[in-house]
Amino acid sequence: MKTYEVFPAPVGSYTVGRTQMDLEYTASDHSTRELTAFVFYPSDSSEGKATSAYMFPEVYGMLKDQPLVTGYVTSDFFSIEFKTRCYEELALSAKEQRYPVLFYVCGGGGSPEWGTVLCTDLASMGYVVVSIGHPNSTMYKRKDGRLFNVSKDFSDAIIALSEDPEMLALAGKMEMRPDDEAAVQMCRNVLALPVLAKLTEFSELQAEDVRFVADVLHKLDTGELDSIFKGRLLVDTGMGIVGHSYGGLTTAMVCRDDDRFTCGIGLDSGAFGLLDSDLSTPFLLLYREPNYNMNAVIGANNSRETYYFSVDRVAHLDYCDIVFTGVSEELRGKRDAMEMRNLVTDYTKTFLDHYLRQKAASVDSLAYDGVDLVRKTNNK
């Protein structure tokens, strides 16, 4: 397996700045949600600064305390000694008056830094990208120095799903490339499992976090909150959102519940909590087989376009930074890391450019070996 010490150069022409914000609000369940958010954005120069650190060592150190990964995480699970391609606290680029806004949602048990490659790529192409640290379901360090790890309740909910006899029985029956009727029925059977109730609650809270931070961005744009983003964000013309794994559930829920979001992307994710949901939003799914079985109801119910692309020779964590940082072959698929990064960035960029920037390019026209458009739905 080829190893790396530096993330790939961004695909776009902008230098990428990064800033971190600590935020807090009271959620619908009356809990206090203490968040952090990394914002990646286009800039014109590195200003002579050194590149940003990738992940705080204290955050990486919390992995060993997660029940989700205890037993197979070792000191060589993945590396954080990586040179990034972004820089702290740069000036916002002056090339455009306003920039479109995206959110990135990492997988459960992960960290908001785990999407650094994709977030940097998208920022280098002129997007402002926000990656949130969510209480209970992710691990992160706030600017105030406090550390937040995955909660026992969230870990227990994930473990319960992985050990649930009904879930295991259904998983054993999932077909590769099932016909649509069979896939929708399988997906309905999975989503009806009682064991998913608690995970759905956590995902709904993550969706609240995203909506709250979207409110904050509006205040940054209007100048109600002081920042470099005053008058510079395209928040009123629609935002996009991308989520990996468990974060993909949040992505779909945000699209369903908040019409400020124009389009969404799920990277090897599922549809928990979305049994009878019309997202009313264009949605793209990139996944490994047989994951169509876990997502079929999204396209069946969505009154807008839903794209299902199957990607072969990949592992689940290939959709995040571990495609570069992972040092265990067991974590990786068979595709070259650069090839996988180019694939994910290209599909993501093309989809977002089409629906947020109204560019003519469409994901239908992309051609990668072993990437197949399994289904496109439009139920209007």
Automatic annotation (TrEMBL):
It comes from the Bacteria. One of its GO terms (molecular function) is hydrolase activity. Pfam families: PAF-AH_p_II (PF03403). Keywords: Hydrolase, Lipid degradation, Lipid metabolism. PANTHER family: PLATELET-ACTIVATING FACTOR ACETYLHYDROLASE. This is Dienelactone hydrolase. It comes from Paenibacillus silagei.
